[in-house]
Amino acid sequence: MQWIMVVPLKALARAKSRLSDTAADGLRPGLALAFAQDTVAAALACPEVADVAVVTGDALAGRELAALGARIVPDEPGGGLNAALRHAATVVRTANPHTPLAALNADLPALRPLELARVLTAAAEFPRAFLADAAQIGTTLLGASSGHELLPAFGTDSRARHRASGATELLLTAVDSVRQDVDTGADLRAALTLGVGPRTAAAAERLKAA
Fold it and tell me: Which of 116, 70, 111 lies closest to 92 in space, CA to CA?
């Protein structure tokens, strides 16, 4: 059975503040949108994914990601990342009660569809499962099989928090593109080394020219 991905995205004007040492204020919103566009495009191209629902209150991001084929869920709670994910999970599960659901970070610009497929195939073996980020501190993907709640615990030390919640950690190799989120300049350089999607590549060129 294919998965529905839920991708949370905060307002672009407030996104990626930790990239301030690499990108000026005027460039960070464009970078954040490019990351999300490449993430969503790769997820939609994954053979294990049936649909991508982006939960956001940002009108521009909503239009651009809908144009790629994503479903847009308004961030009605406005209560932060986990509240947004719980709300989107409820919306998605109301329409698709038996479909496995996975939360996926919006800042995975190097995401490869087949690596995502490997992670989702592994996650399907457990009621709830997660993948740690490249730093081994956070989480880039949290999945819940049919009949199980997502129970997101993203934020500081989310790897430990998701493990403590009973989710199984997926100890996979060769899925670097699913682990490499981008919060800092070093993260962006690591993603560029892996090979990013076209929108992030173009945004990175604009960053060099600035």
Answer: 70
